[in-house]
Design brief:
Strand content: 15-25%
Radius of gyration: 29 Å
Shape: elongated
Helix content: 25-40%
């Protein structure tokens, strides 16, 4: 039925779907659907579906079909206009078996004498540093959010690379994501509570 709809044969697709539903409603089941009842062979099931072509299910009516019309593909790269853009921090995803407070201690040493502050550490979408009262099972992948100590000044790529180097001397990092302000608004998610 999906193939028939794909090639524009919605009427035939509905006829097959309805025949299958009528067959199931009559109690005929193939072995993979039989449960504790008597299973029809594949051939018997197929024959039952064929004999029910043209019948309509009592529980699920035919679906209207309209061919999907895809819009013309744009040749230009879509872009949202941005008047101002500023990198204000970075999320560094790290792999560590340390407890959150111990990881934070290591990272705080790594960011000494930089323009970054450790804003939060999350694990599985939950903030684990600063400590919360919620108890969660930890995995060895953390997101560490570093924000500029002065959000009015843009963080440069060399500063981010230096931060990655310093963090990498302490813990294995896997992925990095710049945190940017677009037209003065945060272009990144808030840290979960």
């Amino acid at each position: 039925a999906m193939m028939l709809r794909h090639i524009g044969e919605g009427k035939s697709a509905n006829a097959i779907e309805q025949a299958v539903l009528v067959t199931l409603e009559s109690g005929v089941r193939s072995a993979d659907m039989a449960g504790s009842g008597k299973a029809a062979s594949t051939t018997e099931f197929t024959d039952a579906v064929i004999s029910n072509l043209g019948k309509v299910s009592e529980t699920s009516g035919a679906r209207d079909f309209q061919a999907v019309r895809l819009p013309e593909r744009e040749t230009e790269v879509a872009a949202t206009p941005v008047e101002t853009r500023k990198v204000t921090g970075v999320d560094i995803f790290v792999e560590s078996k340390l407890q959150p407070e111990d990881l934070a201690s290591e990272l705080l040493v790594a960011i000494e004498r930089t323009r970054f502050s450790l804003h939060a550490i999350t694990n599985r979408g939950n903030t684990v540093y600063p400590a919360s009262s919620r108890s969660i099972g930890l995995v060895d992948h953390y997101r560490c959010r570093f924000l500029a100590t002065d959000r009015h000044v843009e963080i440069s790529d060399p500063e981010i690379l230096a931060l990655l180097t310093r963090v990498g001397e302490t813990v294995r990092w896997m992925h990095v994501e710049k945190l940017q302000l677009f037209n003065g608004d945060d272009g990144f998610s808030r840290t979960p509570k």
